[in-house]
Please model this.
Amino acid sequence: MKRMGFVIGIDPDRIAEYKRVHADVWPGVLERLRKSNITNYSIFLRQPENLMFSYWEYTGDDFETDNAAIAADPTTRDWWKICGPMQEPLATRAEGEWWAPMEEVFHLD
Model:
């Protein structure tokens, strides 16, 4: 199992909407995440900085393939069309990234 964390900004005027849609995530989106070995997934919000931190545990053995399956999923792509405009990716993210990955520097087991 690998713990993974990511960060992104959010449009402060759309926080309530973001919370609303995430209170009822589409079942197809959740199923695709599960099929791609993503578990224990959480998103946290930090205000007033308007940053979101996501955390999940990856239990598979080929993240690139599993992540590509998520990106290719039509239901997930439709979900991203709703959520993407609410998010504000960090200017410092690498090319091709949306949520910027974070380095794990500590873990208490």
